[in-house]
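Intended use. Records like the one below are meant for learning the mapping from a protein sequence to its folded structure. Do not use them to infer anything beyond what is encoded.
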Amino acid sequence: MRRSNLIEFIYKLLLLYPTPVVLSYLWNFGSLAGIALAVQIVTGVGLAFWYIPSVELAFSSVEFIMREVAGGWWLRYLHANGASLFFVVVYLHIARGMFYGSYTKPREKVWYSGVVIFILMILTAFLGYVLPWGQMSYWAAMVITSLLSVIPGLGESLLLYVWGGIAIDQPTLTRVYGLHFLLPFVLVALVGLHIVFLHEHGSNNPLGIRSVWGIVFHPYYTYKDLLGLLIAVLVYLFVVVNMPNVLSHSDNYILADPGVTPTHIVPEWYFLPFYGILRSVPDKAGGVSLLALALGALLILPILSKPPVRSGMFRPVFRYGFEVFVLVWLVLGWSGGNPVESPFYEICQTATLLYFVFFLFFNPVLVWIEGRIEVLYGCGLLTAPKRSGVVSYY
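Structure written out for the chain above:
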């Protein structure tokens, strides 16, 4: 009886909950992110059957998977490129939520849980990047973990605990492997909580208004999601089969050598915008502070921005500002992947400044102006166009 009740509850939760009738294909990214996470877990467990978390054997075990295990190359490339697919989908999911105001009341908990999932994704992906124990993996781990040393009082002790000694060695790799295997299952739990929060008040919609009419999620939106999934899978498999290393760094196919520093240390592409923010100041502590603030700005967005009109479709100034923000984000990623020299260093600094201007100045000021305009309309000092309809915002 309990089992049937649980199945019925899950069925109602995932398929029968009421959904706005105007959702576009931009609302596919949530389900795509869940599927991408499932693919990462399945392929990761498969790789764990042959991977050896040893500084002497890790690199060779990856080569063994690629060359000797039947279908091993396929499994490894599915996992490596699946991380890129996961981040593409999540970045688009976040951008859609920012543009259509999905972070506003009463869905703040959905946004908070989503940002926590995103931060945990970054940590999980970084740990996975270290595991092949290639040259770029080793030095990326050296650069990123050394950032812990800037924490006042605890930094040096925490760094020694993470490394398991005075340098990156076997204890470090053991810790990385254990955490990388564990964290995806923590992500699954957080995704479940994220879905529960989402269903508490229902999905937002492109109009940003209270939905009077709704339809059940299945079959109307399951078919829509399946079409989006089909397109994503085709692109994903095309990359895996035809250009599996297009997003990888060639130095990571060289065994890690602590005595040889690469000329240009870069993380995977999906870390590059944050890496650009990190290195936009010469001081390590300042860079870490900016990186923490960049992630914190996402987390506190519902506090910084409470627009009277939720959807960016009806906020023309915000729409142009958001387009500039997207361009700034792309420029941060491009400049973050280039050497720390002129003009890339100056471009990183400018883009970082514009990133924080968007969150800490442009958004709050624009919301304040829009609020004053709404008050003027309410007092009758401004007259709405004759064709404008009356909508109920909440």
